[in-house]
Amino acid sequence: MPNELKSSPISPESLARKHEVSEKSVRNVLIVGGASAFLLIFSLAACGLAFHLLSEKRAMQWMPPLGIISAPNSAPLKRFPAPNLDLDDDHAQRVALYTKQSQKLNSYGWVDQRKGIFHIPIERAMDLISQRGFPSRTNGVSGTDGSPLRLIQEIHENK
Length: 159
Hints:
The chain is mostly helical. Helix content is about 45%, strand content about 5%.
């Protein structure tokens, strides 16, 4: 047997029954607690020493006390410009645009005089479409006797 029964404080019959030791060892708890405390103190001391050594190599730069910043003539210095708030919501520009669009929709005029393209009032255009129907292109090619390719070719030939 590797364990010596004589040096063990456990009775031989407890070992034979394979029971656990009922006596708690305070010594082991103290060793673990002491080692944890030592490790914690050592870690904090090492970090403090590292910070101290690094702060000596690179000292903190001097900063002026915070307060009112003044220019050389002792006038308060505007460090940041005031916000450029646009209080105008462009209402006048929108009204002008709507007026211009309304005039164009309700008047006659030329779009391209050289090509003979003009515009008419929207109400008149809707009346003409309701009387005549939508304009359709008569190109002599029906859906049954021609192909889309033939229709495209005829459109390009007429231009």
